[in-house]
Amino acid sequence: MLELTEVVAGYGTTTVVHGISLDVGEGECSVLVGPNGHGKTTLLRAISGLIRVTSGSIRFDGAEITREKAEKLVERGLIHMPQGDLVFPDMTVEENLVLGAFAKRASRSARRRMEEVYDIFPRLLERRSQRARTLSGGERRMLAIGRALMGDGRLIMVDEPSLGLAPVIVDEVYAQLRRIVATGMTVLLVEENVSRAQTLADRIHLVENGAVVRSAAGSELLDEQALRETYLGVSE
């Protein structure tokens, strides 16, 4: 569904992503892991059209999208949930969800999608009339994911869903992410917490210094001693 070939991107004259090639199959959950500041978030921003790709190619569902604008990519069904709790604080939970369905493809099925989001995140249903600013950190993260799902996407990119959350809340968020993956949604996930990533990943891509240095099935990659020592702090 998603194919990257030698993608180079960055900010101004600073190159952050150095020729990354990878692919994400339909119905697959692929996870980007690696140290903070090594290009994972920048890569998602390049894929979703938020920053310019300097060179290389990005194809989505067979179509070249390297130079397409972000709003056109949403129409195609490529949805990006960025880091943090980027919700509209003075709008209600339900108003935030409705805004997630602004694209034509999503607006046609917005009511059905909202029911599905409430089924995945029943706490959002309980708080549907509350302003987003009154929610807890975990609830705001659920709302951000729910709003992304409202886009009726074919592929959803989720950036650091566990960032800044207490472990018990991370457990809850990941339990719901597993439900989303189980529906067959194609997912590209960025996660520094490798032990969390392994619970979802069909494939893991290790990103270091803006390049993919290793790709393998999740279980295979996490069995490698060097990776365990570097990113999990486990030595044997």
Description:
The structure is a single chain. This protein is an alpha/beta fold. It has a domain at 1-76 and 191-236: Rossmann fold, CATH 3.40.50.300. The protein has helices at residues 40-47, 70-76, 93-99, 104-107, 110-120, 122-126, 137-149, 167-182, 194-197, 218-222, 225-232; strands at residues 2-11, 14-24, 29-33, 53-60, 63-64, 78-81, 155-159, 186-190, 203-208, 211-217. Helix 3 (93-99) runs parallel beside helix 7.
CATH architectural label of the domain at 1-76 and 191-236: 3-Layer(aba) Sandwich
Count the beta strands: 10
Poorly predicted runs of 5 or more residues:
none
Along the chain, the helix and strand elements come as EEEHEEHEHHHHHEHEHEEHH
Can you tell me the CATH superfamily of the domain at 1-76 and 191-236? P-loop containing nucleotide triphosphate hydrolases
Organism: Leucobacter allii
InterPro entries: AAA+_ATPase (IPR003593), ABC_transporter-like_ATP-bd (IPR003439), ABC_transporter-like_CS (IPR017871), BCAA_Transport_ATP-bd_LivF (IPR052156), P-loop_NTPase (IPR027417)
Family: Belongs to the ABC transporter superfamily.
Domain ABC transporter: 2-234
